[in-house]
Amino acid sequence: MDEEYDVIFLGTGLKECILSGMMSVTGKKVLHMDRNKYYGAESASLTPLNEVYEKFSKGYGPPESMGKPKDWNVDLIPKFLMANGKLVKLLVGTGVTRYLEFKSVEGSYVYKKGGKIFKVPADEKEALATSLMGLFEKRRFRKFLMFVQEFDEANPKTHNGVNSSVTTSKDLYDKFGLDNNTTDFIGHSIALYLNDNYLTQPCGDFMSRIKLYSESLQRYGKSPYLYPLYGLGELPQGFARLSAIYGGTYMLARPDAEIVYGDDGRVFGVKAEGEVAKCKMVICDPSYAKDKCEKIGQVVRAICILNHPIQDTNKAQSGQIIIPQNQVNRKDDIYVCYVCDAHCVSSKGFFLAIVSTTVETDNPEQELLPGLQLLGQIEEKFVEVSDLYRPIDNGVSSQVFVTESYDATTHFETTCNDVVRIFEQATGQPFDCSKVKTQPEDD
Prior knowledge:
By secondary structure, the protein is of the alpha/beta class. Helices cover 28% and strands 23% of the residues. It has twelve helices and 21 strands. The strands form five sheets. A seven-stranded mixed β-sheet has the order 9-8-17-18-19-16-20. Strands 11-3-2-15-21 form a five-stranded parallel β-sheet, covered by helices on one side. A hairpin with a 3-residue loop joins strand 8 and strand 9 (116-119). The longest helix has 17 residues, at 204-220. Mean pLDDT is 93; it is low at 439-443.
């Protein structure tokens, strides 16, 4: 490897592939390596189904009743895209949408104590009809939403005594007299917070999240979420293709890839198969630079195969169910998301449902029980506990920039925030998708 690269990426997870595409289109010479033989790393979609059984060491393969193994594309880290969110804007801005096809997710639901789930209202008619809250609470909820939608930082007439950088989210709730059940529903099913820490924070971010949910909902009507056909593994592959068009080089199945440093502590290159590829910068996932990370917790995920839709969803073919922490006496929410053959991820008649949460005890699988109980009969279950890491420095001195692990949320907003952080630290420039030039026609 005599060539020198501007950037070497280690790991083909979605974050690394997005950044690889962005660096390539802005003229950087890019080399991308992964220890695996497939794209996606932690955020891959495994196919055929036999690979899932092998990864989780089941000791047996899928039964014939589950159809052709090649019909399955199983996400290891399930997430949906907000229809008006950062990732969709990034996909459109870079032209990667030309390689992908999306389908809207049919419903968004919230869990209440007692084990019942309710559809998150998608419009005013559903809001008036829902049994999620009483009549007077619906009026207060409506006034709250109208205020948030009309709030304009630049127009004091819309503030009504609210200072978005001082007024806390709890203060905002109290201003409209909303009860605990409603605030639970808003904070976790609309603003999509992992826990209640946001309540004591200034309400600017909180209101922005509600507006994003509303704007995304208006795009397609059923729910604010989108999901790619053939699984989330299509996303890193789309950005990898973008990078390749602009000269990026990919090398898979390099299990021995390791970062090499110079005497000054700055990155010198990456060594693989006895050769060193020189570079000015490395961007990688935490598994390649654990010495530059700290463990901040764990996430537990259960991938479940069902042969029926989930109860109380009106037989919806796809959806998300959020179990707010307070409803099950936890510190963190539990998430359930499910898709089916309509998204080309399973054999006909089967569903893939993934339950996930942040680990709080020494019995992680037991923590998923409220979500698993909503699924009914489970044909097969694959459980994995993953460590969460975040970098302990900004990477500027060593020129090694490390992404954070994927959290338990079932949307990509936190993923995109991390991409923005890395891009700005690595380039010293703000991340502006509108400045990315349109890609040339590829063969």
